[in-house]
Write a structure and sequence with these properties.
By secondary structure, this protein is mainly alpha-helical. It contains 14 helices and three strands. A three-stranded parallel beta sheet has the order 1-3-2, sandwiched between helices. It is a multi-pass membrane protein.
């Protein structure tokens, strides 16, 4: 068990190591020379870390954006009642999560080998959080005070995760092919459900001829064709408006937030954050190109030797370079829809929805790209609105009904689209297999 936990923590819990080993294995199986093997492995690992650095920059910028708009609207976190919290939960079930994740990955590889679904899920950090949230739902369903059979819990969770990591990329792949124009990559991310819904909405209600990347602009506005410029412009407007409203509102917490600007004016500070966000996107796009350039050729070695025709299922940013403008159209649409759901949820069920901008951005941007692939601008907008709807209502149902006694605090920021949609199914399975647990 200690070996398995070590592998879970140091291999599957460190996706950069996992990616590097897979590329190394693929190149060795293709009998590449030492120079090609070393270069390909290192560049793939560096590309993956560049993506993380870019994503970290985006996240840091959003850490100002979210509390700023939360303060403008006077949002406070919902009272969650009595619950374990993640620290207590992980101290009791951390080993279960790690082992279920490890066995789930092996089941994913096995299913890819013996079924027509040739997808290997490589988004390590989402593997951990999805397993943790599903474990939280199962323990909540069974009861936090009872002694659960841990090996049964590990095996049931592992099968669920292995099946999910195999089928999620398979279900979204028809639309993924439209996004990237080939069958080389798959989407391996918990935004799969909203990406799928965005693609379907674009197909049914959109017009793919009106592509976001081909929008016609007046000659004097041609700078808007540059995705880096349009991202900085749109985010700059949102940051400046939010900062101005915050400074005028005098809302509780406003002074503390503005103090984070130090000696800078808060408007100037916000503009810098907007440009940091745009820079983070540019870094992510560069890292994705570098990773794909090494991973896809190396993966052919695994595909031909271990899992014939296998395809790597990768993190959401892998689709961003194919439609950068659609990522912003999706995000802005989701942001606007989130504000509407904020009011509706408060009035209808007295729940204070906390729109987690990291989830909103990465999921809505992905859904926007998928929606654009089938329905152009209208499809990208639908993708964003659908994402906001799933996240808003999903957060409410998850926190209040699915894991209220275990880790509702974690679910408010770590749970996202697929977890919200599959949550009731996991609860149902926990009840069905209760006799084994």
């Amino acid at each position: 068990m200690q070996v398995a936990e070590w592998l879970a923590n140091n291999l599957f819990g460190q996706p950069v190591i996992l990616i590097g080993l897979i590329v190394l294995l693929g190149l060795v199986l293709q009998k590449k020379n030492t120079s090609q093997t070393m270069s390909g492995t290192f560049k793939a690992m560096i590309g993956f870390l560049i993506i993380n650095i870019g994503a970290g920059t985006i996240t840091a910028a959003l850490e100002v954006f979210q509390p700023m708009w939360a303060a403008v609207f006077g949002l406070e976190q919902q009272s969650l009642g009595e619950y374990q919290g993640f620290e207590a939960f992980s101290s009791r079930y951390g080993g279960v999560i790690a082992l279920a994740m490890t066995l789930g990955f092996l089941i994913n590889v096995l299913l890819a080998r013996i079924t027509p679904f040739k997808y290997i899920y490589l988004t390590g950090h989402m593997m951990f959080w999805t397993t943790a949230i599903f474990a939280g739902i199962m323990v909540d369903t069974l009861g936090v005070d009872i002694e659960i059979n841990r090996w049964s819990l590990i095996l049931i969770l592992a099968v669920i995760m292995g099946v999910y990591w195999t089928l999620q990329p398979a279900i979204t792949q028809p639309f993924m092919r439209k996004v990237i124009g080939s069958n080389d990559l798959a989407l391996g991310h918990t935004s799969g459900s909203v990406a799928l819904l965005g693609g379907l909405a674009g197909k049914w209600f959109g017009n793919k001829e009106n592509d976001t990347e081909k929008l016609k602009v007046p000659k004097g506005m041609e700078f808007l064709k540059d995705s880096n410029v349009i991202i900085a412009l749109v985010m700059g407007a949102l940051y400046v408006v939010g900062a101005a409203l915050l400074m005028l509102s005098g809302a509780p917490g406003a002074a503390e937030l503005m103090a984070s600007a130090g000696d800078n004016n808060f408007i100037v500070f916000s503009i810098i954050k907007a440009f940091e966000f745009a820079a983070g996107i540019a870094v992510v796009l560069f890292g994705v190109r570098m990773l794909i350039g090494e991973l896809v050729p190396a993966f052919r070695g695994i595909a031909t030797k271990i899992v014939p025709n296998a395809k790597p299922a990768l993190d959401a940013p892998v689709v961003f370079p194919y439609a950068p403008t659609a990522t912003i159209v999706g995000f802005v649409s989701a942001f606007a829809a989130s504000l509407i759901w904020l009011v509706v949820l408060g009035a209808a069920v007295s729940y204070v929805f906390v729109p987690t901008m990291i989830v909103i951005f990465f999921h809505a941007a992905t859904a926007g790209v998928f929606g654009n692939a089938t329905g152009g601008v209208r499809g990208a907008i639908f993708g964003g609105v659908i994402t906001a709807t799933v996240v808003a209502w999903g957060q409410y149902i998850m926190v209040t009904a699915l894991l209220s006694s275990t880790i509702p605090d974690t679910a408010m920021w770590a749970a996202d689209s697929d977890m919200f949609i599959l949550g009731p199914v996991i609860k149902l399975l926990a009840n069905i297999f209760r006799f084994l647990l």
